[in-house]
# Entry
Amino acid sequence: MIHQIPAGTRDVLPDEMRELRAIEERLRSTFADAGYGEVWTPTVEYEQVLAAGGGEAGAAAFRMFDDQGKVLALRSDMTVPIARVAATRFAGADGPLRLCYSAHAHRVVGQRTGQQREFLQSGIELIGVPGTEGEAEVLGIAVDALAAAGLARHRVGVGDGGLYRRLLAALEVPAQRHRELLDCLTRRDLVALELAVDELGLAADARDLLVELPQRRGGPEVLDRGAGPAGEALDRLRDLYGDLERRGIAERVILDLGLVRDLGYYTGAVFELYDPAVGFALGGGGRYDELIGRFGAPRPACGIALDVQRVHIAQTAEEQQS
Amino acid sequence: MIHQIPAGTRDVLPDEMRELRAIEERLRSTFADAGYGEVWTPTVEYEQVLAAGGGEAGAAAFRMFDDQGKVLALRSDMTVPIARVAATRFAGADGPLRLCYSAHAHRVVGQRTGQQREFLQSGIELIGVPGTEGEAEVLGIAVDALAAAGLARHRVGVGDGGLYRRLLAALEVPAQRHRELLDCLTRRDLVALELAVDELGLAADARDLLVELPQRRGGPEVLDRGAGPAGEALDRLRDLYGDLERRGIAERVILDLGLVRDLGYYTGAVFELYDPAVGFALGGGGRYDELIGRFGAPRPACGIALDVQRVHIAQTAEEQQS
# Structure
């Protein structure tokens, strides 16, 4: 008789479960108070629907056949299913749509990495509000939600998910090299990035921009230096930073020009959430203006997701350090 | 581009989701107040673990391979995973173990039956309390939980899941005919049952007992008539009824000698929950004294599960009728 559970999954016992439910409940109340209505989507969907997310979002951890031989999969996030819901059940809706969720998802993890394959995400999706106004609302709510969950020292990383890709195109780096360079950046391996850029044999100023720009990380001063063909992206980040200052959360923001989220659907601003008490991101998100259109009803949108278990670990770590 | 979702699954939009969460929260509070601690188990488990439940509980709606070729499946209830947790994580625990859950499960449904393949269950498992004392505690909490969820007219069906099987054995009905007769009873098809019993060519009193006993349904008077070899089961039901009277919930009880739950692990008392406002069971459960032992650490146990969506439909129906 097997007693084990699959790698990357776990049993949660009552003491921990009580605390996870309390965090989940506080996140949900914060979202509800901000006007976000919760939705639930099926645990299992057609793989073709989930693949609309592209990249990591399209790579299902578990796949199976239904009784008609169609491929089903467990969702790897809630953003793609909610894009489907927005394009089908709310196709005719005018005005912004504010949806939230709290649900388990599954991702592909390497063997023996100790990473969780199943995780509980709570998050929001703001549909129909373009530009920095939408992004600032989402970030403001994420900061409030983490405070409600008991964190005090959390930070927000803000970058542009398309910046480096546009830079590579503008500097005429051959398309077949993009994947390798973006992978270095996704892994935050700036040494490997520099080696890979050197192999391209570019002019010195182009080479320096590709190596140095993703290292810019900090306050608004990182937006002051020249960025060549990436100047437009920096202008948008400056606007977003202004919005975040007006919301009073600028002191929590870390501008990060090397931030690239590995989900395939981001088109502009990308976010990550951190806490100095722990060494991993608590969640992330960004703008995905083209995803809902892939289901037939184009609308601009952005969102953010929190990993409830990681938020719990950060909350415990903050308590122990204070 | 496919926009559909798999048959038997659904998207839940905010108005309904708010009400489902409210019900879930009230059930969870009732369980917590009664001393039950919530657990969470992986959405996906090894099929061999889930198969320990036998029968319906072992029949997974979705199966898949992991990267080592082992068969994984989506759970069809939470009782089998919690039996595994009780035998592994609480193997050395003394005294009763009180666990609860609120989680989605998946069952096999016929095509075009309109039945839900994915459903949200909230329930309790009481481990280490044998006999009618354990059963009465579980039923008392289920009645309280439904009242907390807004129901007023709910009822509890109580039978013995092994009664008919023992009757067939005692009356020396050939073993190869048992499945057919039990299937008639599970479907509540008493006409088909009578035809099948007639084919057995038994003596008149044995034939009459097999046809008439499962029709006995009502108050404590159904326990008064003779039951031949099933007399011992009726004695136990009489004890349980006495316990339920002392708890003040006897007026909600319907004794039902034809009640057979189709899960493979029940060994004694079985329960179903009803509301006169709707035509389907809101949940069910029973005693499963042998299941935890299949994971290596035998303990008596019983439990009950509520289908949150069905409780919601019943609550709405009660409101409309009042």
About this structure: DSSP finds eleven helices and twelve strands in chain A. The longest strand of chain A covers residues 97-106. The radius of gyration of chain A is 20 Å.
